[in-house]
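Troubleshooting: if your tokenizer reports a length mismatch, compare against these two reference records.
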Amino acid sequence: MRKRRPFKVEKKKSDTRSVTDIVKELKQGGSLSGDYRKQSLKIHGLICAKCGREFDLNNQHLLTVHHKDGNRRNNPPDGSNWENLCVYCHDDEHSRDILGDYFSSDKRE
């Protein structure tokens, strides 16, 4: 039986940035980067934009924010890039791209 060599483990470089620098960097991704869900629920309400299902405070965790352009860092304060979708419609929305690519492929037999 052949002996295995041990894996070489590289040490991670420690991050020397301050917390304030990291926060500034994260905020540059969009004006509402971390709080866009709360803002979208406030603007668009607790309703799925696709199926029309209404939600309340007990089941609002089933409502997600979908970025229309696919860029989760594009968070305009007016909410124009967001739509609230239930988890089922959100999964359906993202699986449509995969299905569309499959059906438009020339490699199908």
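Reference record two:
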Amino acid sequence: MDVASAKYIAAGLAAMGAGIAAIGVGLIFGNFLSGALRNPAAADKMAGRLIFGFAVTEALGLIAAVVALALAFGK
């Protein structure tokens, strides 16, 4: 296998991180809604953790996308 094809395979594997982050965001919001519907009084307390979890998960997805682009188009 030459270096160019290995570079594109690595970029594809790194790009999967963005999709996995999307799954994580869906799980975070789904679990929040499940908990908020079971206990509406605690929904306000969980909102801060929801936003923090969303931000961290989305940041990891963006980092994975940047790494994929750097691998695909870098020298």
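Descriptive notes for reference record two:
- The helical segments are 3-38, 43-73.
- The chain has a mean pLDDT of 91.
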